[in-house]
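Structure tokens please, single chain.
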Amino acid sequence: MQSECAMRTNRVKQLMGQNKIAFGTYVSLCDPKIVELLGVAGFDAAFIDMEHTTFSLEQVENMIRACEISGITSLIRTPGNDSHLILRLLDAGAQGIQVPHVRNQQEAIQARNATKYPPLGTRGALSTSRAADYGAVTWRDHTKTSNENILLSLMIEDKEGLENLEAIASVDGVDLIAMGPSDLSESLGLTEPNHPKLWEEIGKIASTLKTLGRAKLALTHGHPTLTADIQQLMEWNVGYSNVQPDIVKLIRQHYSDKIAELRSNMSKT
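Here you go.
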């Protein structure tokens, strides 16, 4: 017996639709408990990174489950614009995909097509996938809800992407244009954090996205390369923000401070 689609509300898209900023943070430790902690702490999303980690698909699927239990959005950054991996992540239940280093409209369309079912895209069909509740929902409801609910974020991290910003952001089905401040700085030949040129470029990007009125800007809060505060994010009409420092930095800093304190106290005795 089939039922109506039970796909959970995408909290990030919901907040963006209310013109609010959704907050997530970077997850690079492979433990679903980390994801659950983010939900308990009040975050809206877990930004699960497959670009700079060794996470397997099975490990990510378990973190997606933790997102569902915690009521937060699973946003997965892929290693590249890989349609086959995107399909497997979506079948596993991912609610959001972020594709790095998108340089032109053709690459944006490729990512969109991998994320959406026909007629919006070319995502492959499996009626018994985990995302389709193993066939417990009607296929029509699953495809309709998936196309509405799944978030697509495209990262612009180099000069070519910057030059093609308007064409990339104009592609139907793109929800976020995410800026990678570090890679973008390197691409622009900027070696100092908070360089005025970088601030200028981000301001232009924000203005272009506002004018287009389609995709919103995604930008990290507290990034060492671009330390924009919350007021600046609001002014730039940011829709999603990863909060720094992430848990790895927090753990490292805590233990570094603790061991330094202990050794300092020992030297005083």
